[in-house]
What does this fold into?
Amino acid sequence: MPFDLNDPFSTLPLATSQIVANLLVALLCGLAISLIYRWSYRGTSYSTTFVASLVTLAMITSIVIMAIGNNLARAFGLVGAMSIIRFRTAVKDTQDLVFIFLVLAIGLAAGVGFHRLAILATVFVGATLWLLGRSGFGASRKLEYLVEIVASSESASGEDSGTAAPEAAPWDAVLARYARRHRLLHARSGEGGRLDLGFLVTLRRTEDAPALTDALGRTDRVEEVALYYDEERPL
It folds into this structure.
């Protein structure tokens, strides 16, 4: 894109071929970034509309930059016009923000005619994001899980165990077998003398999670077992 630094309020028109080239580069880079997002996404709230928006956002940013050019009056006018828009969609994942900023930067580079910068940035930054996502870089290795237990107040033999000491509970032995350490987070009494217990458990091995829930399910007084884990932690 041609610039006239001597007159910041001037308007230098773009050739049709330059406009088409800028939009094509923004389109191709936006498609590449959206595919990288799709391949590297590890969350639970995947949105197809967000993936499509990444492509169009790169092109729209390119159009905005071409419309502004080197004209300061247009730039300030655009800021005023965009200030009336209210974006109320909450971005749940920080990684989504990274991809949004990436397509904005790519669209900006394509809009000013820096095609090589836009393409190389897409390749290098996109490859970095893909590798980080696939390798699980930065994921916690503590193997911490939340175990919820619903237990009855009576044992299988019919004896009332409501007054038993906490350390004598039958599930403690199971937790000690599969976990390096476990800590009681909450305890709540329910209907019919049932107990709702929550434990923070650090497993010895990730593959012990199914065995732990199975062993707890066969433990005396235990009626229900639920195990929760962070989706970003390895299983």
